[in-house]
Amino acid sequence: MASHNIVVVGASAGVAGLTTAWILSQDSSKVVTVIAKHMPGDYDIEYASPWAGANFMPVGAENTRLAKWEQETWPPLRDLAEHYPEAGIHFQDTLIYNRQKDRGSATGSWFESLTKPNAWYKNMMPNFRSIASYKLPPGIDNAQAFTSVCINTALYLPWLVSQCLKNGVVFKRGVLRHIKDAVGFHHSGNHADAIINCTGLSSKYLGGVDDSKLHPVRGQIVVVRNDPGQMMATSGCDDGDDETLYIMTRAAGGGTIIGGTYQKDDANPLPDPNTATRIMKRAVELSPKLVQKGQGIEGLDVIRHAVGLRPLRDGGPRVEADRVGDLTIVHNYGHGGYGYQVSFGCANDTIALMNGALRGHVAKSKL
């Protein structure tokens, strides 16, 4: 079988690009180079993946491609949690609260499918159960619980790199001004046969892509040492349309993430102290077990405050084959706040599109 030289481009080596590169590298006919400005271990506001919680909470509407990608991503994440502890993924009991008054808000819309009663994913997630109405806290209209996973990104991203390296993937740092420039970055010294674009928010300004549908969505979090023993999320809060509430403890001592915000077109890189105070107050009210009895936010042992930018795209992620001149490109970017939980599904579709393009089948771009 003839081999193909593939370059995976990321403004950062994030979960979309690394997952795609890892799956590609399992095919001996694909010779893969990853080029990115940022690599695991770097922290920059435009490098979204390290700041993520991250977890698996299905947000795709039933029978949509987002739900399909989530359905395809859950089994490999579950397998990693069961059999590869070094990947930094563990199971957590998960509780989801819904308030009808959050409908139509930024966070309520984001979590609409997650928080629906009798949610479509009930047969996918282990131990799914609806919470009886008499057990609901004041102001909560419905709730469900299930077993899911939380990912320690500080371990998982380097683990993905290590799996790629074992399969011969070569990593390079670089910054591209135009997507076509990637063709000359393959480590073999030969031109790439295909480019996979996983540049996230940078696709907004990357020459040859220039996707005006992309928006930064600012997420502010607080990382604490406290462990509530359960992963939790709500459909919204009373502190603002673009503020939300979630709590998740990373595997292997990675700390507990409490958040957060969902601030579209806000790229301020600095944590806001007032927002941080509201985040912590909401978390302690929702989960008193975070602190010792009688303590408020003073009982939180803060590791750090952080801000990251989610790469949100109008119309959803772009997973699509394209041509720039005679160059074959497959795009995989724009995953908003759910990049980890669609990572395997999107990567599989991306690779299928790439293989089709290499056989000469490329549909007209819909950008």
TrEMBL record:
Annotated TM spans: none
Entry cofactors: FAD
Gene Ontology cellular-component terms listed: cytoplasm
Xref: Pfam families: DAO
Entries under InterPro entries matching the protein: D-amino_acid_oxidase_CS, DAO, FAD-dep_OxRdtase
GO biological process, one term: D-amino acid catabolic process
Residues annotated to bind D-dopa: 337
One Gene Ontology term of the molecular function aspect: FAD binding
Source domain of life: Eukaryota
Annotated ranges, domain FAD dependent oxidoreductase: 6-349
Keywords, alphabetical: FAD, Flavoprotein, Oxidoreductase
Binding annotation for FAD: 199
Gene3D superfamilies on file: D-Amino Acid Oxidase, subunit A, domain 2, NAD(P)-binding Rossmann-like Domain
Annotated family: Belongs to the DAMOX/DASOX family.
Protein's name according to its UniProt entry: D-amino-acid oxidase
Originating species: Penicillium capsulatum
